[in-house]
Recover the amino acids of this structure.
């Protein structure tokens, strides 16, 4: 989850999010370098008392400030396209989960074998136990096994919603009547938080998403337990 | 042929990648498998054959389609108001 006064991304929990993070670091560093250089030049020009009234043109500098930006753009584009295609790779999922957006909660359906379905409501602030996170905890978490490609099919039952979990590098709009596919592989066990990312009414800010990644044996125990309860 | 399908169903994990639906929008994937299941049932039972090969389509649409959609379509089939051609 996010920390107070956090500036950067949340820690990545999937290989794709890691790549996005590294690309962002790369692109941002280029932005910092260019901005620093431009700022320095502006300050130097504003604070000098030297003047030269006779510069008309210069072939060399024109070539420099055309070629260098072109090269910089290529250096940004190459990793960008790499990550884009990485995100688009065909994967062979081990598990399909449907995340359905409602006003104002998510429901999850695990229907590959039996029909396991449950709702996930936000835990009200007065019901939080010490150590839990305000406006982020839910009564039921979407549990997934680690190191397995998971396909998530996102849709909605009423209005637009959006299923987003920053640590997993996933955001997918939930559109009524449409089934949007996204996928991820949780490379480490943990609890990952997200929030509805499309305005959907009064309690749009109060329908969070919690994904809990656990080893496969624990996932199987959890599914058996959930089937008993339901 | 039926053995191949039976094997695939036995080793079923989840709906595999379908090259006919390579993009983000999987709505048609779900609907197509639902249609194919019912068409397969209708075709095989009209010839008096066993409908177990049709189970593949059923597994796939159960994996992909939201339960509310399936319930609605099942109801429509019973009423005779299902919009798809079976």
């Amino acid at each position: 989850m996010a920390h107070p006064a956090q500036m950067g991304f949340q820690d990545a929990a999937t290989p794709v999010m890691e790549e996005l993070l590294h690309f962002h670091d790369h692109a941002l560093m280029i932005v910092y370098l260019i901005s620093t250089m431009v700022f320095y030049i502006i300050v130097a020009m504003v604070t000098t008392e030297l003047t030269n009234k006779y510069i008309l043109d210069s072939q060399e500098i024109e070539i420099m400030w055309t070629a260098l930006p072109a090269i910089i753009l290529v250096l940004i584009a190459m990793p960008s396209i790499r990550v884009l295609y990485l995100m688009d790779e065909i994967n062979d999922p081990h598990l399909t989960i449907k995340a359905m957006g409602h006003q104002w909660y998510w429901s999850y359906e695990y229907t590959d074998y039996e029909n396991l379905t449950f709702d996930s409501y936000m835990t009200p602030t007065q019901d939080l136990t010490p150590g839990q996170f305000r406006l982020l905890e839910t009564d039921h978490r979407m549990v997934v096994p680690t190191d397995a490609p998971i396909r998530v099919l996102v849709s909605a039952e009423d209005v637009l919603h959006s299923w987003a979990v920053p640590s997993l590098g996933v955001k997918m709009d939930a559109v009524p009547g449409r089934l949007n596919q996204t996928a991820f592989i949780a490379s480490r066990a943990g609890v990952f938080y997200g929030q509805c990312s499309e305005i959907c009414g009064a309690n749009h800010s109060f329908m969070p998403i919690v994904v809990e990644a656990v080893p496969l044996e624990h996932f199987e125990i959890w599914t058996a337990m959930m089937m008993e309860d339901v | 042929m039926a053995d191949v399908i039976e094997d695939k169903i036995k080793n079923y994990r989840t709906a595999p990648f379908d090259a006919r639906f390579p993009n983000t929008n999987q709505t048609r994937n779900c609907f197509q498998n639902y249609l194919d299941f019912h068409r397969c049932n209708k075709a095989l039972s009209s010839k008096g054959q066993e409908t177990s090969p049709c189970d593949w389509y059923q597994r796939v649409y159960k994996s992909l389609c939201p339960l509310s959609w399936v319930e609605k379509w099942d109801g429509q089939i019973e009423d005779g108001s299902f919009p798809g051609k079976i």
Notes: Chain B has four helices and no strands. The interface with chain A takes residues 12-17, 22, 24-27, 29-30, 59, 62-68 of chain B (CB under 8 Å).
